[in-house]
């Protein structure tokens, strides 16, 4: 056996100790006092900030929502079986945020930005975008002037939406709210193909996982996932995840908005989010107010929807935007926009309930969908009489504006007279003509699911309807006529459609449309 040389041993020990430096890591930690129902009360986090992420033993994260004198209330973002009384909680010094980058497009993520579509980690560079962020101030905004084409005839013609606008989609259950928004996303394919994508974000709140999977499939099949991100907090996810899902979606939208690109976000739906927020608030023992919602539920929705904006075109001013995350400082570009389509579900058409009135007053207009229209076969079931868009009119392209100018009025007159017509008495020719035209316009405005129309096609058919060129076509043949008419125009008069698309409505164009409509409608007359 070799002899142990004490000098050698001590030399080795000395060498090892010479590199040692005592380093105490200073983590601010607290301990769990109570835990239950997705809420933990924590003692000892004296310096924690409102909205900060904290980490529990085992890695579970939570957001600090209540700051009391001797403890803080934390909502837990996941299953909390491992958390017990006495568990250690660590501050992260980070406000809740989500990692966003170009790679998030085409993915399905949860509220914290973790992919849940089984396609692996988000690729490419990512930037931390805070979930809660102050909306851009007035200096950094521009009026809404560019259209956001939804591809839905009745919306683009009568309640147009502009880029940067917030337009509420409201209606009872099963009236086609989701369909309107998904079709709008599908319609952005045209812009993606043209190399100017509108980045879409679909936020699913409190829905069945199977419904979300179905929507992802539709988007994928139609090639729309190439420019869309889905943020999902399903019905089985904890309430805080559902509360924060729209904020996560807004953070993704802001990434595109602040780098100078147009984005569109759909919140499906904010009623469910409000319910989740009520649950969290009651568990945090905040005082309940009207309908047991907490007093700040208006603030919850207004601070979220204010983040939709059209940003000023000047890069320098946009770069000084308030509350801009540091990571974006050298990437900022002006001219971007975030358009929001929040959804609200009403009960038996009652728009005067608490949450519907709140969101109606926050948004720049609303699209009402009603069950009676839906059930009578008018789909999309948009009640144009009570739907409005407060800023979208400025964003409509000129040719559409001219053609659709009288449509809303015509339809209002029609609805008024339609009631008389039910009595079956003899009507004078003027009234009859209004009614006949109105009936045809109703048919024109019908549209199938997942079938958005390019704007030029919309203008062409609405032109025919509003100029009363279809009086010879029987009402039940209008949809057939529409198909023939648009196919014929596309095949023989593509240049006319292109002129319409560019916003012009020249005499030549109107002449072409009129003669084609007359010629075709004569055929329908002869058919009978
Ligand atoms: N334009 C349309 N043409 C034909 N069917 C439609 C149309 N729009 C919606 N539908 C059908 O109506 C049903 C309800 O639509 P959708 O799920 O969009 O409504 P919703 O109001 O979002 O419902 P929910 O209350 O479940 O959120 C769906 O089965 C859909 O296929």
TrEMBL record:
Belongs to the ATPase alpha/beta chains family. Residues 396-519 form the ATP synthase alpha subunit C-terminal domain. SUPFAM superfamilies: C-terminal domain of alpha and beta subunits of F1 ATP synthase (SSF47917), N-terminal domain of alpha and beta subunits of F1 ATP synthase (SSF50615), P-loop containing nucleoside triphosphate hydrolases (SSF52540). It comes from the Bacteria. Its EC number is 7.1.2.2. The record marks 387 as: Required for activity. Its main location: membrane. InterPro entries: ATP_synth_asu-like_sf, ATP_synth_asu_C, ATP_synth_asu_C_sf, ATP_synth_F1_a_nt-bd_dom, ATP_synth_F1_asu, ATPase_a/bsu_AS, ATPase_F1/V1/A1_a/bsu_N, ATPase_F1/V1/A1_a/bsu_N_sf. F-type ATPases have 2 components, CF(1) - the catalytic core - and CF(0) - the membrane proton channel. CF(1) has five subunits: alpha(3), beta(3), gamma(1), delta(1), epsilon(1). CF(0) has four main subunits: a(1), b(1), b'(1) and c(9-12). Produces ATP from ADP in the presence of a proton gradient across the membrane. The alpha chain is a regulatory subunit. Pfam families: ATP-synt_ab, ATP-synt_ab_C, ATP-synt_ab_N. Gene3D superfamilies: 2.40.30.20, ATP synthase alpha/beta chain, C-terminal domain (1.20.150.20), P-loop containing nucleotide triphosphate hydrolases (3.40.50.300). Residues 151-389 form the ATPase F1/V1/A1 complex alpha/beta subunit nucleotide-binding domain. The gene is atpA. The keyword Coiled coil does not apply. ATP binds at residues 171-178. Residues 28-92 form the ATPase F1/V1/A1 complex alpha/beta subunit N-terminal domain. NCBIfam families: atpA, PRK13343.1. PROSITE patterns: ATPASE_ALPHA_BETA. It is found in: Cell membrane; Membrane. It catalyses: ATP + H2O + 4 H(+)(in) = ADP + phosphate + 5 H(+)(out). This is ATP synthase subunit alpha. The keyword Cell cycle does not apply. It is an enzyme of class 7 (translocase). Keywords: ATP synthesis, ATP-binding, Cell membrane, CF(1), Hydrogen ion transport, Ion transport, Membrane, Nucleotide-binding, Translocase, Transport. It is a peripheral membrane protein.
């Amino acid at each position: 056996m070799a002899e142990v040389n004490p000098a050698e041993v001590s030399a080795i020990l000395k060498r090892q100790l010479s590199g040692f430096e005592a380093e105490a890591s200073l983590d601010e930690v607290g301990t769990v006092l109570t835990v239950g129902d997705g809420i933990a009360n924590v003692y000892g986090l004296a310096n924690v900030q409102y909205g900060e992420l904290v980490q529990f033993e085992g890695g579970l994260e939570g957001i600090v929502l209540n700051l009391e004198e001797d403890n803080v209330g934390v909502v837990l973002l996941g299953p909390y079986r491992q958390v017990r009384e006495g568990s250690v909680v660590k501050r992260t010094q980070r406000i809740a945020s989500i990692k966003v980058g170009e790679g998030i497009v085409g993915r399905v993520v949860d509220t914290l930005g973790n992919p849940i579509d089984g396609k692996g980690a988000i690729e490419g560079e990512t930037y931390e975008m805070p979930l809660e962020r102050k909306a851009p101030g007035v200096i950094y905004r521009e009026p809404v002037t560019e259209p956001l084409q939804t591809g839905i005839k009745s919306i683009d013609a009568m309640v147009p939406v502009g880029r940067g606008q917030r337009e509420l989609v409201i209606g009872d259950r099963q009236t086609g709210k989701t369909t309107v928004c998904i079709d709008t996303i599908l319609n952005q394919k045209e812009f993606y193909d043209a190399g100017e994508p509108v980045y879409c974000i679909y936020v699913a709140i409190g829905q069945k996982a199977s419904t979300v999977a179905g929507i992802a499939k539709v988007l994928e099949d139609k090639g729309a996932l190439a420019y869309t991100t889905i943020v999902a907090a399903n019905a089985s996810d904890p309430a805080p995840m559902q509360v924060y899902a729209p904020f996560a979606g807004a953070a993704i939208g802001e990434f595109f908005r602040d780098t100078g690109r147009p984005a569109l976000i759909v919140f499906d739906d904010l009623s469910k989010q409000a319910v989740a927020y009520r649950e969290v608030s009651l568990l945090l023992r905040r005082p309940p107010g009207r309908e047991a919602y907490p007093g700040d539920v208006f603030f919850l929705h207004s601070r979220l929807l204010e983040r939709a904006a059209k940003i000023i075109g000047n890069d320098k001013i946009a770069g000084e935007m308030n509350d801009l995350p540091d990571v974006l400082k050298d990437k900022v570009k002006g001219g971007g926009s975030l358009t929001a389509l929040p959804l609200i579900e009403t009960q038996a058409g009652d728009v005067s309930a608490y949450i519907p009135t709140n969101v109606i007053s926050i948004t720049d207009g609303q699209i009402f969908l009603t069950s009676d229209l839906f059930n009578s076969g008018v789909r999309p079931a948009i009640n144009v009489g009570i739907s409005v868009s407060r800023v979208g009119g400025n964003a409509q392209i000129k040719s559409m504006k001219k053609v659709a100018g009288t449509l809303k009025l015509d339809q209002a007159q029609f609805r008024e007279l339609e009631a008389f017509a039910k009595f079956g008495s003899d009507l004078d020719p003027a009234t009859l003509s209004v009614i006949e035209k109105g009936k045809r316009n109703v048919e024109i405005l019908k549209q199938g699911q997942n079938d958005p129309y390019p704007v030029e096609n919309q203008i062409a058919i609405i032109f025919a309807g509003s100029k009363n060129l279809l009086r010879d076509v029987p009402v039940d043949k209008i949809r057939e006529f529409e198909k023939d008419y648009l196919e014929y125009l596309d095949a023989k008069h593509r240049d006319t459609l292109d002129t319409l698309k560019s916003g012009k409505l020249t005499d030549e164009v109107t002449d072409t449309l009129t003669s084609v409509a007359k010629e075709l409608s004569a055929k329908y007359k002869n058919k009978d």
